[in-house]
């Protein structure tokens, strides 16, 4: 029996974890956003790729009326005065996204018309890799998010967590394991939809994995470089259609 789309999506979103990571300096990772339910519960991460658009995983799609995008956040448990809150205007999952296999697990979120993220010392964008770009084996990358901090689950941490990963394969890292730089046994599974940043660019999105910190089941990341053309075409076709400024 295959799960329906809603239950499968919920299952995937509950898998996000930050295991073996640490708390970075407050607001030092400025491109990450918290994707929350309208009642304020965090469930996915995302990356701010320009002043109007967020990149995340397609399985984070809860419906345009059920989501809030929060930029400039560090602690989920208190209001810091640095947050920017936005209601999505448009959710654009990849047209070939498959909720059963989780192939093409990538989605763009456009904030409401006439709204944009205000870039400042707490909120910045992150560059994208070029189409088809690859990374050399042994490259150290960073994953960040508010996922669980232990393999058994528990409470989502109030503060942002991050961890450095060693890239194992240079062929197709979207389906190969990344390993913790301080432990070559444990595997990391980060916050669903959250960014895997290498060389200052968001090369991966946390997609899925079976269990957590288990060498038998590598975490899977959507390779953003495979979708750069789709990202560019989607954004520019939106502005061509609606004739709104960038």
Automatic annotation (TrEMBL):
Gene: LOC115362106
Record's keyword terms, sorted: Disulfide bond, Hydrolase, Protease, Serine protease
InterPro entries named among the record's database cross-references: Peptidase_S1_PA, Peptidase_S1_PA_chymotrypsin, Peptidase_S1A, Serine_Proteases_S1, Trypsin_dom, TRYPSIN_HIS
EC number from the UniProt entry: 3.4.21.4
Protein biosynthesis keyword on record: no
GO annotation, cellular component aspect: extracellular space
Organism: Myripristis murdjan (pinecone soldierfish)
Descriptive protein name: trypsin
Coiled-coil blocks: none
GO biological-process terms attached to the record: proteolysis
GO molecular function: serine-type endopeptidase activity
Reaction catalysed by this enzyme: Preferential cleavage: Arg-|-Xaa, Lys-|-Xaa
Gene3D superfamilies recorded: Trypsin-like serine proteases (2.40.10.10)
Domain Peptidase S1: 18-236
